[in-house]
Predict the structure.
Amino acid sequence: MKMPREFEERPAALLPEVIALRRDLHAHPETAYGERRTAGRIAAWLARLPGMQVREGVGGTGVAAALAAERTGTTPPSISTTTPSPRA
């Protein structure tokens, strides 16, 4: 099955932005369970993408994003990064 051209071109167009975001995050390191700036930057970047539904504060400083799509099943496709809660 061949992927639609849009799925090949769109990621390539975003690559410079993703590289800039990565460089910014590496320039401002944060300690574990305190990644508030990192989470905010990632949430803001994801929120501006078409069809993306973003939740912040997941597990403390985590970000969860779901891509709105026509559903054929019961769960929409999603991208998720989370920081687990510290152990007691």
About this structure: Residues 5-81 form one domain.
